Amino acid sequence: MLSSGLKAQENNLLAVGGNDTTQLRVSIAERTASEVSEIIIIATDDELGTIDGTAPGADGYRQAALSRATVVLSVLEAEEFKALQLSRTLTVTGGQFLQFAILTGGSLNDLLSGGSGEILFATATANPDGHSAINTALQSSYSLRLSFRLPRRDRSQGVTLDLALDLDSIQAQTQRQNSYSRIIDLTGLNGPTVNASIQVFREAALNDTVGFFEVEDEQGNVKDPMTGTILSPDDPGYFQAALAHYAELSFTGQKRSNNKLHSSACYG
C-alpha cells in the first residue's frame, strides 16, 4: 500500500496514500483559457479507474462518472479571476483513487440533465482522442500540480491546479467540518411554515440557482413518490426522486453583489 502522501499513477489517476482520512486542498494556480467551466473529481473503485464495474472508455463510463462526480471548482470569468483566490478543501481517505476531469461549455448539472458541454478525463482511455486531460508535476510527497488541456488541443493551456494534503491540521479541520451540515434540521420547530433569511454572494460565471428539497433523515435519504421506496444519495433514481420533493424556495444572486433574500416555505 502507498505510504501517506499523493502519487500520480501511470494512467493519471491520483492515489491517496495511507489509511486515514485527511484533507486535500485544491487551488487554482493559473488560468489561461476562458472556456473552462468546472473542474470535477470522481472517486473510482480501483486503480484502473473503474466506476460501478464500468471501465474507462466503455459504454456508460461517462454517465457513471458524472453521477459520482463532485465539483471541485467553478472557474470564474477571466476579468474577475485575477482578483480572487480560489480554493477548496476536500475530505479524502487513504487508499482512494481519484479521477479529475475538466468541463467546458456547460456545468456538471448541465451534463447530468442532458444539456450541452464537453468533458475530458485524466485517464486517457476515457477520452475519444485517447489522450489525458492533464499533465502532472510532483512538487513533494504531499503536493502535486495538475495542468489541464482543453478539448481538441494538444498542450495544457486551460487551468493549472495545486493539490496539497494538509497533514498538520487534519484533526482540527475534521472537527470544524463536522460541525457543519448540508442538511437543515427543522424537526424541532413548531408550525407549518419556516421563514428563511439567506445572504447570497455570487461571483460565478454560470447563472446557477440554489434550492432545497425535503429528505427523510440526516443521511439525506428521500422517498420515491411512485413506489414509496427509500433511496439513498448513491441509489439510481435519487436525483429524480429528490426533485419530486423540491421545496418552494430557491434563490440566485446578482453578480458581484451581496443579496439578502427572504422567503417562507411549508414543511413537515
Annotate the secondary structure layout.
Layout: E1 6-8, E2 14-16, E3 21-31, E4 36-44, H1 61-68, E5 70-74, H2 78-81, E6 87-93, E7 97-104, H3 108-112, E8 118-121, E9 134-140, E10 143-148, E11 159-165, H4 170-178, E12 193-202, E13 210-213, E14 222-223, E15 230-231, H5 238-244, E16 246-251, E17 257-266
Antiparallel strand pairs: 1-2, 2-7, 3-6, 3-11, 4-5, 4-7, 7-8, 9-10, 10-11, 12-17, 13-16, 14-15
Account of the protein in words:
The chain has 268 residues and is mainly beta. It has two domains: 6-177, no CATH class; 193-266, no CATH class. Helix content is 12%, strand content 39%. It has five helices and 17 strands. The protein has helices at residues 61-68, 78-81, 108-112, 170-178, 238-244, and strands at 6-8, 14-16, 21-31, 36-44, 70-74, 87-93, 97-104, 118-121, 134-140, 143-148, 159-165, 193-202, 210-213, 222-223, 230-231, 246-251, 257-266. Strands 1, 2, 4, 5, 7 and 8 form a six-stranded antiparallel sheet that branches. A five-stranded antiparallel sheet has the order 6-3-11-10-9, with helices on one face. A hairpin with a 2-residue loop joins strand 9 and strand 10. It starts with 5 loop residues before the first strand and ends with a strand. Residues 76-84 and 169-180 have low confidence and may be disordered.
